Amino acid sequence: MNVFRLAGDLSHLLAIIILLLKIWKTRSCAGISGRSQILFALVYTTRYLDLFTNFISLYNSVMKVFFISTSCATIYLMYVKFKATYDHNHDTFRIGFLLIPVTILGLLINHDFTPLEVLWTFSIYLESVAILPQLFMVSKTGDAETITSHYLFCLGLYRALYIFNWIYRYYFEGFYDLIAIVAGVVQTVLYCDFFYLYVTRVIKGKALKLPA
Amino acid sequence: DEHLKSHDEL
């Protein structure tokens, strides 16, 4: 564990807490893509199956349980409790366009052709693109609530910090995992446009509105 | 297995 990874994990944790607080406090999931949230729930459940087969540390297990349970809770809030506030007219990204290529890629390019390993690889690839329905929704409506933009910033920052963690591990442990690195870089690049808007607008106290 | 080291990440 190095400082970049810890910061990345905390940023990830903060993103999810911000999202849940936004939904709970405003009693609304307006502006949040249910499709992205479904993809994230799929990411956590397929990646953390090793929770039952491989104990790494208490920290690791607690975080895994947190990510799986909060992603299920988010889906419950969006599709059951606050269903009336879910903005499904703007949440129209076809997730099959992501799921099919990611499944094929996971079956073809992996470290080991075993069920757990293929699922781990699938989750890494899926995570890299899972935010696309959300970014598509923001671009479609042309704006995002400030709290939603904080959520997106923390979620994007988490994988960017992981890239520094991988650079650190390469230099100091001689370890690298190309699948994680390539997917992590793709994931971070997808946020770049949003990062630019966040820094130039939200930090200066303006709402996140896309240029017309 | 070397790649399993990455599985301790989240």
From TrEMBL, chain A:
<feature type="transmembrane region" description="Helical">
    <location>
        <begin position="150"/>
        <end position="168"/>
    </location>
</feature>
<keyword id="KW-0931">ER-Golgi transport</keyword>
<comment type="similarity">
    <text>Belongs to the ERD2 family.</text>
</comment>
<keyword id="KW-0256">Endoplasmic reticulum</keyword>
<keyword id="KW-0472">Membrane</keyword>
<keyword id="KW-1133">Transmembrane helix</keyword>
<protein>
    <recommendedName>
        <fullName>ER lumen protein-retaining receptor</fullName>
    </recommendedName>
</protein>
<keyword id="KW-0813">Transport</keyword>
<feature type="transmembrane region" description="Helical">
    <location>
        <begin position="119"/>
        <end position="138"/>
    </location>
</feature>
<keyword id="KW-0675">Receptor</keyword>
<feature type="transmembrane region" description="Helical">
    <location>
        <begin position="92"/>
        <end position="113"/>
    </location>
</feature>
<feature type="transmembrane region" description="Helical">
    <location>
        <begin position="174"/>
        <end position="199"/>
    </location>
</feature>
<feature type="transmembrane region" description="Helical">
    <location>
        <begin position="62"/>
        <end position="80"/>
    </location>
</feature>
<keyword id="KW-0653">Protein transport</keyword>
<dbReference type="Pfam" id="PF00810">
    <property type="entry name" value="ER_lumen_recept"/>
</dbReference>
<dbReference type="InterPro" id="IPR000133">
    <property type="entry name" value="ER_ret_rcpt"/>
</dbReference>
<keyword id="KW-0812">Transmembrane</keyword>
